[in-house]
Write a structure and sequence with these properties.
CATH superfamily: PRC-barrel domain
CATH class: Mainly Beta
Number of helices: 1
Structural class: mainly beta
Distance between the termini: 27 Å
Low-confidence stretches: 79-83
Number of strands: 11
Largest sheet: 4 strands, mixed
Mean pLDDT: 80
Number of domains: 1
Helix content: under 10%
Oligomer: single chain
Length: 88
């Protein structure tokens, strides 16, 4: 799978069935040749005029399935302003 293929996939959290968005970047380890995490832009603040919340950083260990259109992840997103996804 290429990075371009990941960018066209929507990320869905299976814990609460919410759409997180589309993959904007990946964290890749060239020494081991593996993806460490997917990065999804956070939700917009106040109608998108002020900017965005922090990005979701989703560890690859939280990815449950990669399909033709979707990437299913199992993460907990805290309700605080910091939107780091955690593996719990």
């Amino acid at each position: 799978m290429r990075f371009f293929d990941c960018k066209s996939k929507e990320v869905i959290n299976v814990k609460d069935c919410k759409r997180l968005g589309y993959v904007s970047d990946i964290d890749f380890c060239p020494e081991r040749g593996e993806i460490q995490s997917f990065i999804v832009p956070g939700p917009p603040k106040y109608l998108g005029c002020i900017g965005r919340e922090k990005d979701y950083v989703i560890p690859f260990s939280c990815v449950k399935q990669i399909g033709p259109d979707l990437i299913l992840v199992d993460i907990e997103v805290d309700k605080n302003p910091k939107k780091e996804a955690t593996d719990r």
